[in-house]
Structures are given as C-alpha cells and as structure tokens.
Input
Amino acid sequence: MTHNITLIPGDGIGPEVADATVRVLDETGVKIDWDRVECSERIIRETGESIPTPVLKSLERNRVGLKGPVTTPIGGGYQSVNVQLRKKLDLYANVRPVRTVPSLRTRFQDVNIDMVIFRENTEDLYAGLEHEVVNDVVTSLKVITRRASLRIARAAFDYAAQVGRKKVTAIHKANIMKLSDGLFLKCCREVAANFPDITYNELIVDNASMQLVARPETFDVLVLPNLYGDIVSDLAAGLVGGLGVVPGANVGEQHAVFESVHGSAPDIAGHGIANPTALLLSSAMMLQHIQEVSAAERLRHAVEDVYREAKHLTPDVGGKASTKEFADAVIAKLQH
Ligand code: NAI
Output
C-alpha cells in the first residue's frame, strides 16, 4: 500500500533535515507518495497568508503531514504556522514522547526517562481572550471546556491502552483554579474510570515540575491543559538533551501533523550540519500513526543505535558528522 503524505520541508535547516528524513524513510521499505508543498517565510510574505492555501489543501486531502521548521516572519501581523494549523485542522492534541537518548551527555544521562506528554492544544489561556478592564488593569480569560478536556484525556488513555503503558498522570492547579482546572480533573477522572487497568494519579503543576526534575523516571503518560503542557513539555525535553532530539505531533480526529519542535536555526542553515534526529523520530511517530508499526520501531532503534555508537553524531550533540553522514549511519543500521 502506498501512503499519500504531505511533506512541508519548511525553511532554514528545514529542507536539510527533511531531505535526510525522506532518504531514511525510503530505506524502511514503507511506500510513501510525498506531496511536497512550500511553506516558508518567503512564501508567507509573498502570498500574505500565514498558512499558504496549497499547504492547507494538501493536508486536508492527505490527512497526514510531516513538517520541518518554518521561520515566523517578524512584523506584518503574521500568526505562527503551527498555531494556524492547529486551528484550521482542529489538531487538539500535542503529543511529545520524551525518552533518554543513548550515550547523549546530559545531566540525567544515568536515568532511564521514557514518558509521553499529551498537551491540550486549543483552549486555556491560549484562547487569546484578553482585554483591558480599565487603564492598567488587564484580564486574560482561561477557557476550559468539558468537550476539549474529555477528548485530550481520552487521547492520553487510548494511547496508554494501545501501547501498554501503565500510568496516566493528570497535571493541574485545581487547588487554586477550582472551577477551570477542577473541570479538567473531573473529565480526566471520568475517562480514567473506563480504564481500570491503567493507574491514574493527579499532581499539582508546581509539585509535578519538581518531581519531573527529581524523579523523571517515575513518569509515564502525562495529560495537561494547554499552558502547563507547553511549559512542562519543554522542561521534559530539557531532561533528555533539548528540543533538537525530541519528536512531536499535533493530532486531531481527522488529521495529524508530525514535526520537529526546534526552529529553523538560521545560524547553521546551509552548512549541512543540522541534526535530523527530531524530524526522524517524528517520522517514526508518523509511521506508527499510519499503522507501519514495525518500520516505526526499526527506525527508532536505528537512530538509537547511531547514538549508542556515537561515531556519526552532528556537532550540536558533540560529534563532527554532517547531516548526510548521520542519515547514512541510520540507513546502515536499518539495513542490518
Ligand atoms: P531554533 O530552534 O531555530 O535555534 C536555537 C538554537 O538551536 C540555534 O543555535 C540552532 O542552531 C540550534 N538548533 C536548532 N535545531 C537544531 C538542529 N536540528 N540541529 C542543530 N542545531 C539546532 O530557535 P530560534 O533561533 O529561536 O528560532 C529560529 C526561527 O525558527 C524563528 O523564526 C522561529 O519563529 C522559528 N521557529 C519555528 C518553529 C517551528 O516551525 N516548529 C519552532 C520554533 C521556532
């Protein structure tokens, strides 16, 4: 079976890591017909659209996309491409697996970290409902709905059940925001009741942050409203080596976009030394999503093996290899 997938290489280092990823995916044996569309600072400025129409049409058609970073134009009132995609395609779940990368030197390298974060992507303080009540007094509305809370909780529990994970932790501040975070927790509890085999617990966000640093290995699946999810998912990425090595996905009922969470890195664009790990691991998530489960696992293991061997790593993670050499090393591991 051939999968039709939208490829958005992006700009800056985007095309470099996207080309490396496409080359590696070719070697997995999974048949993909790429629909390559341009989304870059240049085209956004040229068309005046924060998300160019052909990009949106392609994603609507194919329902699955792989996306590199896109430079957000400064000035001109453009919204970030990611925010636009989330809104237009109702990508309500931001999913970020955070796993220890073998041999990568970090402060937590001796700890086995393996968690998956489900961040609600559509509401909370990100609803953008702010207003000035009187001069120098501003309010910002935190919107929490039953519908959005239930569906993110379901996404977290469905995932846990599907892959055999044991525990889901809901993170909140319901001791202070009794109504809004209280509703979020109520929804998580309702969903948890349908999954008696999965342990469910709750942590207040400040305590959760402390525990994430003190005992990261005790976390499994996490589910959070938007703001805490945004902060905690970057905190967690920092535990395993930063945004350059963690994958991500934005998933809705109908569509899913898999992306590297780092930016377009203009400082190293064009030098051929960008690290494609984040996009490669995102593409492994994508393979899982399109039911190519064994190829997804082989790809993940091949990337881990290259790190374990530590001979073909890019400069950002202490090596000397180019993007191409890193990708070649992953391909060699895939063929073993
Ligand atoms: P950045 O992530 O592009 O760069 C921060 C630092 O990390 C730089 O020193 C860069 O060289 C390094 N870095 C990032 N990814 C790397 C990789 N794969 N390999 C090796 N080194 C890597 O963040 P910055 O500079 O804040 O943003 C640059 C542009 O990217 C901005 O226009 C921003 O709006 C955009 N951006 C886009 C995102 C997306 O499309 N998902 C996400 C974040 C930023």
